[in-house]
Amino acid sequence: MKRLLAATETVAAVFLLLIALLTAFNVGLRDLLSIQIPDWFDGSKLLMCIALFWGMAVTTYHSGHICVDALWEHLGAANRRRGFAPMRFADFAAAYRREKTLTPLYPPTD
Length: 110
Fold this sequence. Notes:
- The chain is mainly alpha-helical.
- It has three helices and no strands.
- The relative contact order is 0.08.
C-alpha cells in the first residue's frame, strides 16, 4: 500500500510539474513565435483535475489536510509559540480591513 501511495503522490507531483512546463512553454511560444499549442488550456485543466483529486485522495487516506508548512515545520516549539500571536493578529487585522473595505451586497436603505 505504501508503494501505491508513493506512486500516486509522485504522479500527482509530476502532473503539477507538467502543468507548469506546459504553461511556460506555451507562453514562450506565444511571445517568441506567435503560435500556441492547440488546446493547451484543456490539457492543463485535465492534468490539474488529476493532480487535485489524487492529492485529495492521498490526504484523506493519511487523515490530514492540505497545507504548506515550509517555515513552520523547521521552527522549534518556543519559536512556534512566539510566532503564533503575531500571525493571528495579522490574520485578524487583514480580516477586519477586508470587512471594512468591501462594499455590501445590499447597501442599507434609509
